[in-house]
Design a protein that fits this description.
globular
C-alpha cells in the first residue's frame, strides 16, 4: 500500500504545502514545471539549487483504463478519477519526503548537502546524482575508487 494512496488532498494543495515547508526552513526562489510524464519542483536553499523530478504515470496505463478486480474497461470519468488519485498520491509522497529531509537537517541528524545531495543542481545544470550514480556503479564493478572530483581527470 502506497503512502497517502487514498488522499483527498489535491496536487495544488500539496505543492503549496511543499513551498510552505521549504520557506519555513529558509528556502527561496521557487519554480514548478509540468509535462505529460513528469513534474518538477525547484528551489534554492542553503546556497544550493535543488530540483525534485516527480515521474507522472501514463494516463493510458491499464491501471487507469481498466478495473483492478475484473479487468473491465473504465468509464471516462472513472479513468480520470483513478489517474487523479495516483497524481494526488505522488504529490503527497513528495511533500512527506521534503518535510522529512528538512526535519532531519533541523534536528542535526544529517546535513542539508547529505540529505539533498542527489537533487542538488551542479553548475553544469545537471543533478549531482547524474554524476555520482555512474561513479558508484563503476566503483562496485571494478572494485576501485573513482578519482576525486576535479583531480586526476
Amino acid at each position: 500500500m502506497a503512502y497517502a494512496e487514498n488522499t483527498s488532498v489535491n496536487s495544488e494543495q500539496s505543492r503549496a504545502e511543499i513551498e510552505r515547508i521549504l520557506v519555513r526552513y529558509g528556502a527561496d526562489e521557487f519554480a514548478y514545471m509540468n509535462t505529460a510524464n513528469q513534474a518538477a519542483v525547484m528551489f534554492k536553499a542553503f546556497d544550493r539549487r535543488v530540483q525534485f523530478v516527480l515521474p507522472m504515470p501514463d494516463r493510458n496505463d491499464r491501471q487507469f483504463t481498466h478495473t483492478e478486480v475484473r479487468n473491465t474497461p473504465r468509464s471516462e470519468k472513472a479513468k480520470r478519477e483513478a489517474y487523479e488519485k495516483a497524481i494526488r498520491q505522488k504529490w503527497r509522497a513528495l511533500a512527506l519526503c521534503v518535510k522529512a529531509k528538512l526535519e532531519a537537517v533541523d534536528a542535526g541528524i544529517t546535513t542539508f548537502e547529505d540529505e539533498f545531495m542527489a537533487h542538488i543542481i551542479l553548475p553544469n545544470g545537471k543533478a549531482a546524482s547524474e554524476f555520482v550514480r555512474p561513479a558508484i556503479a563503476k566503483a562496485y564493478e571494478s572494485g576501485t575508487m573513482p578519482p576525486m572530483l576535479g583531480f586526476g581527470q
